[in-house]
Amino acid sequence: MSEVPTYHLVCRDCPTELVVETAARAEQRATDHESITGHRLDFKRID
């Protein structure tokens, strides 16, 4: 089993939902999504 943290991202305004590894990638995806759509992605660490 991998010890890499995983992050679940979901947009409350559109059907975007994804899982990424690393907090930096989650933050970047959230920033990119907001700049493109104006929507905020919520994300939290899952194990």
Provide tags for this entry.
47 residues, alpha+beta, 1 helix, 3 strands, 36% strand, elongated
| Spatial extent as radius of gyration | 11 Å
- Structural class determined from secondary elements: alpha+beta
Q: State the helicity in percent bands.
A: 25-40%
DSSP helical segment count:
1
Largest sheet, spatial ordering of strands: 2-1-3
Distance between the termini: 11 Å
What can be said about the biggest beta sheet? Answer: 3 strands, antiparallel
Order of SSEs, N→C?
EEHE
Mean pLDDT: 93
- Mass-distribution shape: elongated
Got a strand count?
3
β-sheet strand percentage: 35-45%
Low-pLDDT runs: none
Helices, strands, pairings?
Elements: E1 6-11, E2 17-21, H1 23-37, E3 41-46
Antiparallel strand pairs: 1-2, 1-3
Structure description:
By secondary structure, this protein is of the alpha+beta class. It has 1 helix and 3 strands; from the N terminus they run E-E-H-E. It has a 3-stranded antiparallel beta sheet, covered by helices on one side. The chain is elongated, with a radius of gyration of 11 Å. The termini are close together.
What is the structure about, briefly put?
By secondary structure, this protein is an alpha+beta fold.
